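We were asked to recover a plausible sequence for a given structure. The inputs and outputs are reproduced exactly as logged, with field labels preserved.

PROBLEM: sequence recovery
POSITIONS: 467
GIVEN STRUCTURE:
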């Protein structure tokens, strides 16, 4: 977890520090009234930016400042700026003309940059921490512990101000303490249903600490959680066994843990995926707007009800969101679904029926051409979905999942995916869908996403796979 967060901190640190560097120079220049033409210092400025960038990239401070105390941060900022100024002075006075910069001007630049960097970091830290903790990006942690060690475990997890995870629930395995709280954190499970609690709720990871589980049982439940797509953190004294998943040592708050996870994606590929989602979302919303002008009146004329259909769906690790689609069914379709369950053609948790009587005339066309999916580009821009991923299940489907099936929602859902381009109409066993989704999750790369996007265009144009 920490490595992923550190990767996010690097570009953030670089952007704000380069910004303060430029502003500091302009302030020092105006304060000292030093008459040097900007055209004369272009080369020095470029060298300064490159040096500062390299120091930021190779400095451990760039990855850790978000969790530093004020004293630690003051020292690290001074150290970084002193190193930068020494290198720049050597360049200016040895290689370049010393007239480019006066001593007073340089000292003022150092002081202003030191103070401004510290102030900007404090402000950014406050904004970043508060917004991240409230967002869906913050990792939601479920603690499994016993009554004797619960207070200590909670203290270790919440004692310092973590911005990258939030303790969202507790299971006490040796007592029934449901409904109680420890340091404001709800106890929502006991020793009988903690696996089911994780299955049906929105948790990204599980922490197992201070339990009396023997190694065999601990290995068994860890394998179950990993199979569900949940990251597992085990306190250090409890990890003397092997599990078929990625394993590494790290800190979670003040607790040393061994972390097990099924996959760990390359940060820069994730950045590219996010960029593609933003660009694709913008283009898709434009196409949705055009389609709305034409399709909207046809939907209203064909049947009673709204143009857009909204429904609660399950996103990454159980997060709920409203999905948007053009309405293709009668207005009371969900109520009629119960009457048609006996005719479900899918084996498993998903409902599918050929010649579904709930589908309207215009709805058949919209589904065949996948035009009904266009409003979901709004979900992509909102961050609920990605262009490529696994399809988000309905709440009733999700509640009927087996533990191993939950892994298909361990990533952000997508408008299209491997299942959609593999002839979805011919697949009738839900477990086959789960296998395709898990294959996508385990082997994801940005190139595979691009291939799926191109295949999706082909499938949509030739109307293959959709019903």
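RECOVERED SEQUENCE:
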């Amino acid at each position: 977890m920490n490595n992923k967060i550190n990767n996010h901190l690097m570009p953030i640190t670089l952007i704000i520090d380069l910004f303060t560097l430029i502003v500091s120079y302009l302030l020092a220049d105006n304060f000292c009234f030093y008459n040097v033409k900007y055209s004369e210092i272009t080369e020095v400025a470029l060298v300064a930016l490159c040096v500062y960038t390299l120091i930021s990239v190779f400095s451990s401070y760039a990855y850790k400042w978000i969790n530093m105390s004020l004293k630690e941060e003051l020292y690290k900022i001074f150290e970084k700026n002193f190193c930068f100024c020494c290198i720049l002075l050597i360049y200016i006075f040895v290689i370049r003309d010393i007239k480019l910069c006066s001593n007073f001007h340089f000292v003022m630049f150092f002081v202003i940059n030191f103070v401004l960097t510290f102030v900007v970091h404090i402000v950014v830290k406050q904004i970043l921490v508060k917004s991240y903790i409230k967002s869906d990006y913050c990792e939601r942690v479920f603690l499994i512990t016993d009554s004797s060690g619960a207070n200590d475990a909670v203290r270790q997890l919440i004692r310092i101000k973590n911005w990258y995870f939030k303790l969202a629930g507790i299971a006490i395995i040796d007592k029934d303490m449901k409904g109680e709280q420890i340091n404001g954190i709800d106890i929502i499970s006991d020793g009988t249903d903690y696996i089911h609690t994780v299955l049906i709720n929105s948790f990204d990871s599980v922490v197992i600490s201070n339990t009396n589980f023997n190694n065999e049982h601990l290995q068994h439940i860890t394998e179950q959680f990993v199979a569900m797509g949940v990251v597992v953190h085990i306190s250090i004294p409890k990890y003397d066994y092997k599990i078929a998943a990625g394993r590494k040592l790290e800190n979670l708050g003040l607790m040393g843990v061994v972390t097990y996870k099924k996959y760990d994606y390359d940060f820069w590929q994730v950045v590219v995926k996010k960029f593609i989602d933003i660009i694709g979302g913008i283009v898709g919303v434009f196409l949705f707007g055009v389609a709305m002008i034409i399709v909207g009146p046809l939907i209203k004329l064909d049947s009673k009800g709204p143009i857009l259909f909204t429904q609660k769906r399950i996103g990454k690790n159980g997060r709920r969101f409203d999905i948007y689609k053009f309405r293709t069914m009668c207005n009371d379709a969900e109520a009629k679904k119960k009457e048609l369950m006996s005719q479900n053609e899918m084996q498993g948790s998903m409902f599918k029926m050929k010649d579904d009587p709930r589908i309207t005339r215009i709805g058949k066309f919209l589904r065949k051409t996948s035009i009904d999916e266009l409003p979901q580009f709004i979900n992509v821009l909102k961050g609920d979905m990605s262009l490529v991923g696994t399809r988000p299940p309905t709440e009733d489907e999700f509640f009927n999942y087996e533990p191993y099936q939950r892994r298909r929602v361990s990533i952000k859902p997508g408008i299209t995916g491997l299942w959609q381009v593999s002839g979805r109409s011919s697949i009738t066993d839900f477990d086959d869908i789960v296998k395709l989704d898990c294959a996508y999750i385990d082997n994801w790369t940005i190139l595979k996403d691009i291939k799926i996007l191109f295949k999706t265009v082909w499938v949509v144009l030739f109307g293959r796979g959709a019903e």
